[in-house]
Amino acid sequence: MGFRTDLEYDPISSLQLRDPIIVHPYTLLRAAVALMRSHSLGCAVIVDQVSKPIGLFTEQSMLGALVSNASLDDRPVCDFAEPRFLCVKSSQPIARVWDAIQRDRARFVVVTDDESGKLIGITGQRGIAEYISDCFPRQIVVQRLGSKPWMQQREGA
Amino acid sequence: MNDVSRFTLDAFEDPLSDFEPPEYSCEFQRVLAEESVSALASQPYVHIRASAPIRQAVQALHGSHASSLLVTENGQVVGIFTERDVLERVAEQFSKLASRPVREVMTTEPTVVYECDPVGTALAAIAVAGHRHVPVLRVDGTLEGIVSPRCVFDFLEQYFEDASH
Question: Do B161 and A3 touch (CB under 8 A)?
C-alpha cells in the first residue's frame, strides 16, 4: 500500500488545522494585516454574512497592496483578495489538499464543515509537511537544524 | 610478517563490528533518512543588497513570486527577507520604512541546511521549525540554493508508491 493510498484514506480532519483568521470583504487592510501578524498566519479568510468563505487574503495579496501604494486605512481586503482559492470539506481525503498544493500550486486550503459549510480551519503546505512528519517521525531530523555552520555549533571536543 | 605487525593486527578491534545498518520498512523511509538535500531540486535564489531600500525589496518579492530574497553584503549572504518579514515588521508602517535599507528588517542568521544533510532535515525545517524558505549551503559554507515545501514535495512524490508506515 503506497503513501498515496494513505492520502486517499485519511480525512482532512486528521490534519492539524490552523484556526482561521476571519475577515469580511470590507475589513480594512490594516486590520487584516494586524490580525495576520498577531496570529503569525499567512492568510485571512474572507467570509460572507453566513460565514461562508468567499475569498482569501494572503501575504502575496498584502505585497500587491503595498506595491500599489494602497492606503491600509482606506482600502478593503476585497480589493486585493486572491481570485482563486480552494475550499474542501473536513471529511474529504487529504489527497485533495495534496493535489491542490501540487497540481494547483496552492499554498493554503480552506476547510469547511461537512454539513453547514462553515469555515473550520486552514491547512496547506505546512499541514502536509506535518502529516508526513507524523507518519515518519524517526526520519525527521531536527537535531541538525541551526543557523550557524556545523563547526560553530559544536561544543566540546 | 614480523612480531610487531602481528601484535598490532591481533590487538585491533574493528569499532564497526557491532554496527547494524538501519532497516527501513519502505523506500520512502530510506529516502527521508539517507538521500541528501542535494537530491532536491533547490530553487535558484533571488538576492538583493543589504543597502537596498525596503520598497525595492518588497517590489522584488512581489514581482518575482519567489516569496524570499537572500540579502547580500560584499558578496556574502547576511540574511533573508521573506513575506513573513514584511508582515511582521514592514507592512503596517510601510510608508515610513520604504526608503530604509532592507538590512534593518531582514531576518539574520536564518535556519540553514547543508546539501549533505538528509532530506528529513529539510522536512523538519518546514514541518517542525515552520520555515518556508531554507537556504542550502555547500560543505564549504557557500550558498547552493533555497529549498521550499514545493521542492521537498516534488521530490518525495516519486516515492509515494513505495511508502508505508
Answer: yes
| Helix (H) or strand (E) segment spanning residue B149 | helix B149-157
The CA distances from residue B102 to B56, B93, B118, in Å, are 9, 14, 32
Query: For the whole prediction, is pTM greater than 0.90?
Result: no
The closest CB to that of A145, out of B59, B90, B129, belongs to: B129
Q: Suggest the residue from B28, B116, B148, B159 to mutate for an interface test with chain A (most A CBs closer than 10 A).
A: B28
Minimum-distance CB partner of B92 among A33, A129, A145: A33
CB distance B123–A140 less than 8 Å?
yes
Q: What is the pLDDT of residues A14-32, one digit of tens each?
A: 999 999 999 999 999 999 9
Model confidence over A25-77: pLDDT tens digits?
999 999 999 999 999 999 999 998 888 899 999 999 999 999 999 999 999 99
DSSP A41-83: -SEEEEE-TTS-EEEEEEHHHHHHHHHTT--TTT-BGGGT-BS
Tens digit of each residue's pLDDT (9 = 90 or more) over B91-148: 999 999 999 999 999 999 888 899 989 999 999 999 988 889 898 888 887 888 899 9
Question: Contacts from A83-87 at CB under 8 Å and sequence distance 24+?
Answer: A85/A53, A85/A55, A85/A56, A85/A109, A85/A110, A86/A110, A87/A53, A87/A111, A87/A112
- Global ipTM: 0.86
Q: Which three cell numbers stand for residue A57?
A: 487574503
